[in-house]
Amino acid sequence: MSDTSLSLHPIAIINTPYKEKFSVPRQPNLVPDGVGTVELLPPFNQPEAVRGLEAFSHLWLIFQFDKVPQGKWQPTVRPPRLGGNRRIGVFASRSTHRPNPLGLSKVELRKIEISNGKVLLHLGSVDLVDGTPIFDIKPYIAYVDSESQAKSSFAQEKPQAKLKVEFTPSIQNIIQKIEQKRPHFGRFLTDVIAQDPRPAYQAGKPSEREYGITLYEFNIRWRIRQNYADVAEVFDIEQTGNI
Length: 243
What we know:
This protein is mainly β. The chain is built from three helices and twelve strands; from the N terminus they run E-E-E-E-E-E-E-E-H-E-H-H-E-E-E.
């Protein structure tokens, strides 16, 4: 048998508010304010490489699950949409634990910026960790990529927000200050937590644990309110860097 191995090299990286896997929404468009920017890397950061791309409204990104341990995959996985208990085949899922750590994401292209030797693609809502390597960019072509009658098994419908999010009075004041530099931060934070990033088996259950997520340069602490399995309360925001 001939050697069919393939060596891949990133052509870009993506900049997003999500500094860790835990905070990333499970699909794009679930958190509208969670936008990203793709920055092409040398020698691919040439204006000619994106000539004509501005005529497309959406893109496909082929990327690496670089935060997932390599070599750890199983033939079956437990998708969060199935409660984290039922197993299906890895190729019937979009699990991050795959034989080859490659992902595919459809994103909105809002603007192309070319300045100071950089080629930047400003995107809409994304579902990638900050710094994720991008291996390829392809235009989304509606007539062939869109299937209005497609069947999508357990993921036929967009998931609804699972948690109601509330802020303590002190956090409301902090968010007002943050929004002077990062507009809609409160709405963004609400949407991220409302999707309930906890493991699927914890959904709908009371918990005394405290959870932490990092968005932009902020560490956020939240917990499930006592006796309310569906209410998350944000009680601490610590800034780790300068805006």
